[in-house]
């Protein structure tokens, strides 16, 4: 049952890291204008996403450490996003609660489906 979450989270991070390689303008914008991180931090992020995502997806050793690192990095990134972009986030908050015709809305809702499926399976076992 846990493997569903591990595979999903692993796939998301592998895809995110891989896409960052090819989406140079978008990742530079993210680093410089959204997160305000030092130059070349994007390469570190790519490596962490792909390596940790692969550990989870392919059931390799160090899953716990990979999850902790991804949790830390995701929490840090989300915190910087909020701190550096509060007005824009407040301006678009309603987008979080309605379906939109974009890939972000699809990914968020797929995440909901995976999490609810996991919970249904977990509760059904009890």
What does this structure look like?
Helix content is 81%, strand content 0%. The protein folds into two domains: 2-90; 92-126, no CATH class. With 126 residues, it is mainly α. Helix 1 (2-22) runs antiparallel to helix 3 and helix 3 crosses helix 4. The longest helix has 29 residues, at 63-91. The chain is built from five helices and no strands. The mean pLDDT is 94. The chain is globular. The two termini are 13 Å apart.
Question: What is the helix fraction of residues, given as a range?
Answer: over 70%
Low-confidence stretches: none
Structural class: mainly alpha
Rounded to an integer in angstroms, the radius of gyration calculated over CA atoms is 16 Å
Q: How does the major sheet shape up?
A: none
Report the end-to-end length measured between terminal Cα atoms. 13 Å
- Compute the average pLDDT: 94
Report the principal-axis shape: globular
Strand content: under 5%
Please provide the ordered H/E string of secondary-structure elements: HHHHH
Total helices: the number is 5
What's the number of domains? 2
- The total of beta strands comes to 0
What are the main properties of this structure?
mainly alpha, 5 helices, 81% helix
Secondary structure topology:
Blueprint (H helix, E strand, L loop, with lengths): L1 H21 L1 H12 L5 H17 L5 H29 L11 H23 L1
């Amino acid at each position: 049952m846990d493997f569903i979450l591990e595979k999903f989270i692993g796939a998301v991070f592998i895809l995110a890291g891989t896409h960052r390689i090819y989406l140079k303008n978008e990742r530079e914008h993210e680093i410089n204008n959204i997160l305000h991180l030092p130059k070349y931090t994007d390469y570190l992020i790519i490596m962490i996403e792909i390596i940790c995502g692969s550990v989870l997806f392919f059931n390799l050793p160090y899953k716990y450490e990979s999850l902790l690192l991804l949790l830390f990095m995701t929490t840090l990134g989300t915190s910087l996003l909020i701190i550096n972009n509060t007005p824009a986030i407040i301006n678009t908050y309603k987008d979080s609660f309605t379906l939109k015709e974009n890939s972000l809305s699809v990914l968020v809702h797929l995440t909901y489906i995976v999490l609810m499926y996991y919970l249904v399976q977990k509760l059904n076992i009890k």
